[in-house]
Amino acid sequence: MAPDCRGMTFIELVFVIVILSVAVVGLIGVIDLNVQQSANPLIQAQDFSIAESLLDEVEQQPFTYCDPTDPRVTTATSAASCSTPSEDALPLGPKHGESRGSAALPLDNVSEYNGLTLDPVTDLNGSVIAQGYKASITVTQVGGKESLDAIDPLPLAALLKILVSVTGPDGQTVSLTGYRARYAPTTPP
Question: Of 17, 44, 64, 91, which is the most exposed, with the fewest CB atoms less than 10 Å away?
Answer without folding.
Answer: 91
